[in-house]
Amino acid sequence: MKKFGVIALAGLGLLLASCGDKKADNAATSQEQTVAEKSGDVFAVDTAASKVNWKAFHKGGFAPRWGTLNVSTGELTVAENNLASGEFVIDMKSLKVDPASVTEKDKKYTDLEGHLKNADFFDVEKFPTADFKITKVEELAAGATKAIEGANKTISGNLTLLGKTMNVTFPAKVDIMENSAAIKAMFTVNRADWGIKFGTDETDPAEWMISKDIEINIDVKADKK
């Protein structure tokens, strides 16, 4: 096992992460649910304007690494001025590590990028895409934690990664306008729930230090067809 892979990684997932050490709250995770029915007007996701950023940590929050993923396609539907459904596909081969997140003189961000793309983590040759499909949209409960300023909804959706689908629930800011729609959210998931277990052997002190948490930040913009 390469030293860089052991020391520098916390894994990655999908999903504008800041460079601070504080993580967003964990998303509630459950088994795959029925996808919401499409209804109302259709809005095509603007893949150039949409972002999926990730951030990963060591236990204790130190030595964070962060980067980006591209959205390759997607759409939202809006009925009676409310988000009814939505889905988007993430290009896992587009995974990037921000060079600014790898500050150690003996580390290379390109090595981390390559490791994250191989079978230890996201195996992008075998699983070139991930996807998210909305299963439910509800009003955000009073007093709920808001990782994103202005959060007004609770979104649940099926996140498929490495061929495994789990349902995740998180607060989000949903904006609906006449000719556009947008979703912003930031939440944390446990990568082991999707079978990404490299660096989770707690009998090995070096691996034990790698957090299973991945912070995902989505900023999806869509235009009315």
UniProtKB/TrEMBL annotation:
Residues 42-223 form the Lipid/polyisoprenoid-binding YceI-like domain. Residues 1-23 form the signal peptide. It holds the Pfam family YceI. InterPro entries: Lipid/polyisoprenoid-bd_YceI (IPR007372), TTHA0802/YceI-like_sf (IPR036761). PROSITE patterns: PROKAR_LIPOPROTEIN. Keywords: Signal. This is Polyisoprenoid-binding protein YceI.
